[in-house]
Amino acid sequence: MQKIYCVTPLYNDWQSCSVLVNKIKQLENTHSEFIFNIVIVNDGSVTFPEDAVFFSEKVKIINLKVNVGHQRAIAVGLQYVYNEVNDYDMVIVLDSDGEDRPEDIPLLLKKCTESNTIVFAERKKREESQLFKAGYFLYKKLFKLLTGQRISFGNYSAIPSAYLKKTVALNNIWNHYSGAIMHSKLPYDKILIDRGKRYSGTSKMNFNSLVLHGLSSIAVYFDSISVRILKFSIYGMLICFVGVIYILFQKLFTDNAIPGWASSLILIISGIIVQLFSVTLIVLLLQLSSRKNTDSPNIKKYLDYIDDIQ
């Protein structure tokens, strides 16, 4: 019998979370091979739980001092399980609103057991608006362009106990959980799962939230992005140099008629070269500055955020 801990962040959405808790409890009736415990990370909500389902032996509510955001709430929950729970086999990370369907947890656990790796839910069907889908599509393309990696999943995942220690030691999980796993080179796998519909209310993921979420995932790859920007800048400067040399060659060594604006074009191209060089220099200096800061992993950082535990 496997002991599973489900970590879910929550902000003012107790009604949806109540449905989620009940559905996870129902899984024990249909899957007797699992014992589920739930860790709800209350991310500074201004409302409070009223449903009796939250006050049971198998449900822990971690109340944070302030709102720290979705990704940091997940990091707090994972570090709590690692430090405070002695006996568990796997950890499930999922949203509390129903979009990560608890009915799919057995599929994640089965894949996790078979591959013995961290397993993420890759979406094969989404329920969001067309505008959100378009924004998410652009985010994935930008992520691929800047990092060279393809991201097609979010936070819904299963972590074997053997990999939780390495996961909670990653400093980048405080910025972006799934991006940190990808960047860390920890082994992970994917399984195709449909995205569900919210149990109640509307999604809090608006355009601004999506942009901040995307920037957080890209920031994890700052070192790789620096190298790619350097490469693109060098290519751009080489193209500009070739353009300047070609214009000068035509003007000085041939009898071809050169337009009067050729000199202005050379100045413009020279300005582009200077700008590309400046951008490259700034990025390299930022990268060198960040590499000299060696923060040791802190697996008990979660204690700084917790107000109390119910």
UniProtKB/TrEMBL annotation:
It is an enzyme of class 2 (transferase). InterPro entries: Glyco_trans_2-like, Glycosyltransferase_2, Nucleotide-diphossugar_trans. Its main location: membrane. SUPFAM superfamilies: Nucleotide-diphospho-sugar transferases. The chain crosses the membrane at residues 229-249, 261-286. Pfam families: Glycos_transf_2. It is a multi-pass membrane protein. Signal peptide: none annotated. GO terms for molecular function: glycosyltransferase activity. Residues 7-134 form the Glycosyltransferase 2-like domain. Keywords: Glycosyltransferase, Membrane, Transferase, Transmembrane, Transmembrane helix. It is found in: Membrane. Its EC number is 2.4.-.-. PANTHER family: PROPHAGE BACTOPRENOL GLUCOSYL TRANSFERASE HOMOLOG, UNDECAPRENYL-PHOSPHATE 4-DEOXY-4-FORMAMIDO-L-ARABINOSE TRANSFERASE-RELATED. This is Glycosyltransferase. It comes from Flavobacterium rhizophilum.
